[in-house]
Amino acid sequence: MRAWDTTLAHPITSLPFRLRLFYTACISAMLVPSLSLINTSLATLTVPLGSDPASWPPLFNAPFSATSVAEFWTRWHLMYRRTFGRMAHLPWLFASKHLSRREANFVRIAVIFFVSAVSHLVHIGWMPVDDRHPHRIDWPMAFCFMAQPFGIVFEKALVLPLTHPMPAPLRGLVRRVWVWGFMLWTGGYFCDGWVRRGMCDRDGGGVDDILIRRLNWGPWNSYIKWGQTQA
Q: Residue 76: helix, strand or coil by DSSP?
C-alpha cells in the first residue's frame, strides 16, 4: 500500500499522468464495494425482520458501462441520486418559469451537483485537522462535482452529435473513452480530497477504515508483532 503525503494540496493530481489515472481508478473502484457493503448489510439485517426486499435495490447499476457522463450518474448511487434530484425540483420549477427549458434543466443539474458537493464536504468535514492532515476545506473535491454539469453540456453539444453517425461498436467505444477520460480527470480531484483527509492512510481511519490496514500498519500491529515473537 502506498504511503501518501497528506500534507500536499493535490496528492493525486500532482502525480505523473499514468500514476494519476491508475490511483484514481483504484480509489474510485474501491468506493463501489465499500458503499455497497453498507447497503447489503442493512438489507441483510432488515429483510428477515419484515422489510420488503424491493426496498433495498442495488445502489449501483453498472456505472462503469455508461457511454455518457449523464448515463454514468443515472447509474451511480441510487440513494444520493433520488435525494439530490428531489432537492433540485423547486429550483428547476422556479427556473422553468423564467428560462428556456434547456437552461432550466442545466440549473437542475447544477443544483444537484452543488448539493452533492456540499454534502461530501460536510461528510468529511468532521475529520480532524492536524500536522499530518492540515487541510480544512477540500476545494478539489468540490471542483470534481461542479465540473460534472459542464461535462454533460459538452457531451450533448459535441460528443454525442459527432459520434452519432459512427457504426454502433465504434460509437460505443469512443463514447466510453470519453466517459472514462472525463471521469478519471475530474475524479482525480475527488481523490485529492479523499487522500489528504486520511481516508487512505496506512494506519487506518476515515470512512474506509478496514481490518487489514489496522493489522498491518495500524494500532493493532503491535499485537501481531507480539504474537510473532512468542512463536
A: coil
d(CA 62, CA 78): 12
**pLDDT digit string, tens, across residues 66-108:** 999 999 999 988 888 888 888 999 999 999 999 999 999 999 9
- Domain ranges for the chain, please list them: 17-23+56-200
Question: Smallest Cα–Cα separation from 120: which of 189, 26, 17?
Answer: 189
Q: CA 200 to CA 212: how far, in whole Å?
A: 12
> Which pTM was predicted?
0.81
pLDDT in tens, 27-44: 888 888 878 888 888 889
Q: Report whether 35 contacts 59 (CB < 8 A).
A: yes
**Measured distance CA(198)–CA(187) in Å, rounded:** 17
Check residue 50 and give left, alpha or beta (phi > 0: left; psi -120 to 50: alpha): left
